[in-house]
Amino acid sequence: MEKPCILATTLGAPGGIYKCFEPCIEKHFTIIPYERFVQRKEDFAAKIQALFVWGGALKVDQSLLQSLPNLKAVVNGGVGVDHLDIPLINGFGVKVSNTPHVVDNATADIGMSLMLASARKIVEGHNFSKFRESDDFPESSLGTDVSGATLGIIGMVFYMLRPESEERAVGATYCASMKELLQRSDFVMVVVNLSPQTHKLIGAKEFAMMKPNSTLINISRGLVVDQDALVEALQKKMIRAAALDVTYPEPLPRDHPLLAIPNVIVLPHVGTHTMETSQIMVERMVTNALAALAGGQIPDEVKA
Ligand SMILES: O=C(O)[C@H](O)CO
């Protein structure tokens, strides 16, 4: 029997890190890469039943949706769906899914890596070993302690609504206000999803509440932090450092002021990028797509 067709982006395109997982998808589907689709829309449009998307690489807009009469699902890799207009997509009778929980551990690992790398100046140390012009350690190579420090997590609220025993088990306390969290924390880690409520949630007012020796770590979405305010806070030494997996735009232009500030680490949104997590993510996308095509309950359906 002929396999159903899916339209996929970034599998093999620049940054197409998921290319090695194509065989897992091809067991069930014929993949039409977006570039081929654009060249021969008339041959493929009616065949495509699902879109596989990672982040905002493919704009799922009115015109694309109108051009795919048999589309049943937009299957997102990753948990964040801020790049998808779900009411618009659902309006075409098309379901949306994501891959929650699959990404939790890898994203938490990148948050901890950023915290430790920033505190202990790992990037500077590496650059010193590799590129030094003199053997003298500059004073700026002194980091800050992580042991004994307070980590404030913005976005852990849902977990913290669980019983108090769970708070105690992880040694955490629920902060009733963001002000309290910002004032108490040595490291502030942002993990909320991007929504109209969290857009530029951390701005000038919030930086003014943070400790001068504190570090901002963002592993959620770039737009949760006001980047201009962050540049100013760092330049005025209102906070010690920033370590970011996410920015706007991504990647940052190489002449962006953030990249010129010492004590800033910027990664190109790689929180989920491990072989293991990516494999499970792609498998989960396949499961969601198969369920959508069969007209059954989609395990990870995201509703508007
Ligand atoms: O949303 C997620 O899960 C990650 O940021 C990957 O896009």
TrEMBL record:
Which part of the chain is the D-isomer specific 2-hydroxyacid dehydrogenase NAD-binding domain?
A: 163-271
**What is the official name of this protein in its record?**
Glyoxylate reductase/hydroxypyruvate reductase
Tell me which species this is from: Anabarilius grahami (Kanglang fish)
Q: Which domain of life is it from?
A: Eukaryota
User: Family, per the entry?
Assistant: Belongs to the D-isomer specific 2-hydroxyacid dehydrogenase family.
GO MF annotation terms: glyoxylate reductase (NADPH) activity; hydroxypyruvate reductase [NAD(P)H] activity; NAD binding
Tell me which residues make up the D-isomer specific 2-hydroxyacid dehydrogenase catalytic domain. Answer: 43-302
What Gene3D superfamilies does the annotation carry? NAD(P)-binding Rossmann-like Domain
Which cellular component, as a GO term, is one annotated location?
cytosol
Recorded hits in Pfam families, A to Z, give:
2-Hacid_dh (PF00389), 2-Hacid_dh_C (PF02826)
UniProt keyword annotations, A-Z: Oxidoreductase, Pyruvate
What does UniProt list as this organism's lineage? Answer: Eukaryota, Metazoa, Chordata, Craniata, Vertebrata
Keyword Oxidoreductase listed: yes
| SUPFAM superfamilies cross-referenced by the UniProt entry | Formate/glycerate dehydrogenase catalytic domain-like, NAD(P)-binding Rossmann-fold domains
Q: Which InterPro entries match?
A: D-isomer_2-hydroxyacid_DH, D-isomer_2_OHA_DH_cat_dom, D-isomer_DH_NAD-bd, NAD(P)-bd_dom_sf
